[in-house]
Amino acid sequence: MSEDNELSYSAAIQEASTSISRFPLIPVKGIPLMSLIAINFDAISAFCPDSSDLLIATYPKAGTTWTQEIVDLLLHNGDAVACRRAPTLLRSPFLEIWSPPRIPSGLELLNKMAPPRIIKTHLPIQLVPTGFWENKCKTIYVARNAKDNMVSYYHFDRMNLTQPEPGPWEGYIHKFMRGELSWGSWYDHVKGYWEEREKRNILYIFYEDMKENPRREVERIMRYLDLSLSDDVIGRIVELTSFKAMKENPMANYTFIPKNVFDQSISDFMRKGEVGDWKNHFTLEQSAEFDEDYEKQMKQVNIPFRTEI
Ligand code: PPS
Predict the structure, then answer these.
(1) Alpha-helical segments (H) within 46-91
(2) How far apart are CA 87 and CA 1, in angstroms?
(3) Could you report the per-residue pLDDT of 205-246, keeping only the tens digit for each?
(4) Which of 58, 61, 208 to mutate to test the pocket of ligand 1 (most atoms within 8 A of CB)?
(5) How many beta carbons lie within 10 A of that of residue 18, not counting itself?
(6) Which of 216, 243, 284, 295 has the largest CB neighbor count within 10 A?
(7) pTM > 0.90: yes or no
(8) For 3-14+26-298, which CATH superfamily applies?
């Protein structure tokens, strides 16, 4: 991806600023999606990946960018320069993202790249284009505990001026619990991929495990990708993908997205990168109400989420 492409992508967003707004959500098969995604969903569903393509699937704010960076570095043998060739969004396109005219959609970016591609999606498993399963594409699913995931999403919705207004925190919790945020219910999302992980050869990993022992998780991803890198290279990848390194990396921290879309003066994309920040947001009553509902929504499965490490 050339510097020209990067500049033209950024310029296109700026030029299209009058057509950028907080897009309403429209349900697709019951899942609320940003209107432009919903309107173009047939084209998104028809996308046919190559069997060498890798899918990174997450509920929004679960550790997507972190995993994209790890995978790109693994595929480039830890070469930091190669992985600074372009911002994350251009190195690893976002399958379903659809923006106003002149800003390339995820599909346009993907169609200009040769496989193997690292493809990001937030789609729940039932909306992932069937070609990924027919072609047996490898898939990494990253899950993050509900409370921290929601806190991160709340701050993101404040600064991402294409997402619906989050409104006050108090009400946001209920929207999250009811599955009314973009890409729908966190509960159904994490359960959907969990239940299919063995049948579809999905590597299911946890944000909390990545924080606790990043090296172990980088090695887990490496093995899944059938790679074998030296200890030194693995160590370098762990350093290059630390929160601090990625926050300072202009090719990973989303600062290339203009302020009319991501207003990072409201909240940084690389905000805190911690486990347990939910404790600074939930009151005791909110936490108890959330936990009670969580038990009901998650009772059929036993996914080992941790809200602290
Ligand atoms: S998105 O918009 O859905 O693609 O966002 P996503 O990348 O999934 O999630 C963003 C949150 O992940 C944190 N992050 C990291 N945490 C730890 N280490 C590293 N390297 C890292 N990179 C990104 C980021 O800070 C967001 O979490 P919060 O809690 O808001 O800080």
Answers:
(1) 64-75, 88-91
(2) 9
(3) 999 999 999 999 999 999 999 999 999 999 999 999 999 999
(4) 61
(5) 8
(6) 243
(7) yes
(8) P-loop containing nucleotide triphosphate hydrolases (3.40.50.300)
